[in-house]
Design goal:
439 residues; alpha/beta; Rossmann fold; 3 domains; 15 strands
């Protein structure tokens, strides 16, 4: 049921004459609106562009995995189907470190010849770790931080994003999802002032509303930024980007940009950002550090084994050892873990408060689904959602079962749950949480 409709006048795109149409506009945080002409009903979806930027150790174009497909499925359920994706690829710009390992192997072989056979394997431990994640992370990072190659990488990313924007000339909203070193590249491209005037980053900013470098060019609104597994807080000690540059950008926008920073609990490369940015109420920016966690069987088994060994033999650095498999799993989890993908979807197309409350109620295993409110029930409390998308009613029926019912602003029933006497306190806690967050 669509709520809070009002009549407005709009100018239709792509027509030679101006026509006044009757528009039903949904006054929620969703980006969908429907309009009606005299000839009948027709739906119009405000479409959007979603641009991915990968991080270190990525040498394949399909790095985003199932995230685009799952996002599209989620948006389709929310009646948002006009979504266009592009996975930026800059991994081909990076330095090949294979020749470096040829030199390392030459030195190691020479050392082994000079050492006894019994301790030759101790000369160079953790070969797979060194040659794999460590080399790739250090190699890719050093490549970007070098002036010439860093500029080449920025050109690669910026040209792909500009081309993506130009391919959809009628689109007005852009959402960027970045991962790992890709978050640093995005941070640098958007907010650094250390570049030469002809750097590709400045050309990109010409296309984004809020930077105001060129008033004559078509500019797109950067609605959301999503950073996943981001080490920005440490890289900025080298890049030296002033966080006030973000404030200047946000204040110049005629809308409120949103930034979600996702941090996996086992990802040793990812860190929160809010305190380092110094965000306050004077910023025109919604920012959230959000943490989530998954534990693989390998990581769980290793943690238990190390805990047992530590109890038996004393402290052996359990956190450091357990982090070896956990960091790799955690750093890649953003692309395929449903909790992370759902967080990204909610960030790009936020749920109305009514929809969010329904999802919150359904998360309680102690509650059971309820049918519509019955006659003779005692309505104990009615609370209105702050976004005017509906209301929540706290009801006790004649059988003394406690209910929470969700209605839209027209009074139409959407969902409900009930609790027996053993879970009345849980329902009271749930109600307080909803009032605090959504009312």
């Amino acid at each position: 049921m669509r709520e809070h409709w009002q009549i407005v006048t709009v100018i239709r795109k792509n027509v030679s004459t101006l026509s006044t149409v009757t528009v039903n506009f949904r006054l929620t945080s969703q980006v969908e609106f429907f309009y009606r002409e005299q000839s009948g009903y027709e739906s119009f979806l405000i479409s959007m562009l979603i641009f991915f930027i990968h991080g270190v150790a990525t040498r394949e174009f399909k790095y985003a995995g199932n995230m685009p497909r799952l996002l599209k499925d989620i948006f389709k359920q929310r009646q948002q189907s006009n979504i266009y994706f592009h996975s930026c690829f800059w991994g081909n710009t990076l330095t090949d470190v294979s020749h470096v390992w040829n030199w390392i192997d030459t030195d190691i072989d020479k050392l082994k010849e000079d050492q006894s056979a019994e301790n030759s394997n101790d000369l160079f431990r953790y070969r797979n770790l060194r040659e794999g994640p460590i080399s790739e992370f250090v190699g890719d990072t050093m490549s970007y931080l070098s002036n010439q190659r860093g500029r080449s990488i920025r050109r690669n990313v910026c040209e792909q994003l500009i081309c993506f924007i130009e391919n959809y000339p009628n689109e007005e909203d852009l959402h960027i999802i970045s991962h790992s070193l890709g978050t640093v590249i995005l941070w640098d491209c958007l907010f650094s002032d250390r570049f030469e005037p002809d750097d590709p980053a400045y050309k990109l900013r010409n296309f984004i509303h809020g930077f105001q470098l060129s008033s004559s060019m078509r500019q797109i609104r950067l609605r959301t930024i999503t950073t996943m597994g981001s080490p920005i807080i440490f890289f900025n000690t080298i890049l030296g980007i002033n966080p006030s540059n973000i404030k200047v950008f946000s204040v110049a926008c005629d809308y409120k940009p949103r930034w979600l920073n996702l941090v996996h609990g086992s990802d040793a490369i990812a860190y929160p950002l809010r305190a380092s940015l110094g965000i306050d109420q004077s910023w025109n920016l919604e920012f959230e550090d959000r943490f989530f966690s998954t534990v693989s069987d390998q990581e769980n088994w290793l943690s238990k084994a190390l805990s047992f060994a530590e109890n038996m033999f004393g402290k052996i650095g359990i956190d450091a050892l357990a982090a070896i498999p956990g960091t790799a799993n955690g750093h890649l989890a953003y692309w395929h873990h449903l909790e992370a993908i759902k967080a990204v979807a909610d960030h790009i197309v936020p749920l109305s408060y009514r929809e969010a409350v329904i999802a919150h109620l359904n998360s309680y295993k102690e509650f059971q689904p309820a049918t519509q409110q019955c006659w003779g029930a005692d309505v104990r409390k009615v609370v209105l959602f702050a976004d005017k998308s509906g209301e929540l009613r706290y009801v006790v029926n004649p059988a003394r079962f406690h209910h929470l019912f969700v209605y839209d602003s027209y009074g139409q029933y959407h969902a409900g749950v009930y609790a027996d006497w053993t879970n009345i306190k849980t329902m009271a806690v749930c109600l307080r949480k909803i009032e605090k967050r959504f009312c």
